[in-house]
């Protein structure tokens, strides 16, 4: 077997490693957001337009890959992307329909059940609480914070600063734990990706791609390249509705930060892997749609990271004031 190994240059090895890390990022990309939605019991934080446009980008990517006759593993990955998108979209629609029905039922029960003047206040409060069963967790948390703030004020002005300080310390502790968890996940993704490439190379499953011919960079089918550009436009436009929604809500609560970290890592390693393979003009032009789709969206991912940080500070300030 050793005599069958293809000698590798440092650039080609880097290209293979980066490509494998990118693939690992894409495989686990949607898992954090699926878990976040499950924990919250809703998917109100995600823009459905973001998901649908992204799904359209994956469909055109799959069509372009199949039309160009790319290697089976690339087509298989494109199919996986479409299936994973379908799972996330289905989950989001399920929670929206379920919560909408629950809220409608609560409103109907509240409107048809009119309390008598002699009904105890406790019963009225319970009936009123059912009406808000379908509201988002963020709204409930804000209401709870406001109630807690009023209670603290009633207990005396001397305890206000201590309570605010305790909240800030607790939030800082939680934030450090989340940071450690995300860093551990990123490190694990890199290790798995590099180990996967090493095994694939040693077993002969992975081999350096030629620069010319066999879809190596200069004979791409024109129609497939057009689909690649359409896919890139979809990827670039998909995050805009999410950025706008975050701006309107002034919050990123309900979104998984790790989801966007893996997206950034996947795009960066994918684009870098292409450029490490070759920077020849014809090769870059052929792969330009995929470079735009990967490296271009990194700017939008950084924008979402900024929103995470900005709105986290805003919520901390609100908690301190309360």
Automatic annotation (TrEMBL):
Chain residue ranges for the region called Disordered: 105-162
Transmembrane feature ranges: 13-31, 43-64, 70-95, 183-200, 220-237, 257-276
Segments of skewed composition (Low complexity): 109-120
Subcellular location: Membrane
Main location: membrane
Keyword Lipoprotein on entry: no
Pfam family, one: PQ-loop
Entries under InterPro entries matching the protein: LAAT-1 (IPR051415), PQ-loop_rpt (IPR006603)
Gene3D superfamilies to which the protein is assigned, alphabetical: 1.20.1280.290
SMART domains xref list: CTNS
Membrane topology qualifier: Multi-pass membrane protein
Keywords: Membrane, Transmembrane, Transmembrane helix
Protein name (Swiss-Prot/TrEMBL): PQ loop repeat-domain-containing protein
Organism in which the protein naturally occurs: Aspergillus cavernicola
């Amino acid at each position: 077997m050793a005599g069958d190994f293809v000698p590798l240059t440092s650039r080609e090895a880097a290209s293979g490693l980066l490509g494998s890390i990118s693939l690992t990022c894409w495989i686990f990309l949607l898992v954090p957001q699926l878990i976040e939605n499950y924990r919250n019991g809703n998917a109100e934080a995600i823009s459905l337009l973001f998901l649908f446009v992204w799904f359209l980008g994956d469909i055109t990517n799959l069509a372009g890959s199949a039309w160009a006759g790319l290697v089976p593993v690339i087509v298989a990955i494109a199919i996986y992307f479409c299936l994973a998108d379908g799972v996330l979209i289905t989950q989001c629609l399920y929670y929206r329909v379920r919560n909408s029905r629950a809220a409608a039922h609560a409103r109907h029960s509240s409107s048809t059940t009119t309390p008598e003047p002699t009904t105890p206040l406790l019963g009225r409060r319970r009936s009123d609480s059912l009406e808000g069963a379908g509201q988002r967790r963020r709204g409930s948390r804000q209401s709870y914070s406001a109630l807690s703030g009023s209670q603290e004020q009633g207990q005396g002005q001397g305890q206000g600063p201590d309570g605010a300080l305790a909240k800030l310390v607790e939030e800082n502790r939680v934030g450090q734990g989340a940071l450690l968890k995300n860093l551990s996940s990123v490190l694990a993704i890199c290790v798995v990706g590099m180990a996967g490439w090493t095994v694939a190379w040693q077993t002969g499953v992975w081999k350096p791609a030629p620069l010319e011919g066999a879809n190596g960079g200069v004979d791409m089918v024109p129609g497939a390249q057009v689909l690649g550009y359409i896919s890139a436009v979809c990827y670039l436009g998909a995050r805009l509705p999410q950025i706008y929604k975050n701006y309107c809500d002034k919050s990123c609560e309900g979104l998984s930060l790790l989801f966007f970290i893996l997206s950034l890592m996947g795009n960066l390693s994918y684009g870098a892997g292409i450029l490490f393979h070759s920077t020849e003009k014809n090769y870059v032009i052929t792969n330009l749609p995929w470079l735009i789709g990967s490296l271009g969206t990194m700017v939008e991912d950084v924008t979402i990271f900024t929103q995470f940080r900005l709105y986290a500070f805003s919520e901390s300030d609100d908690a301190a004031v309360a």
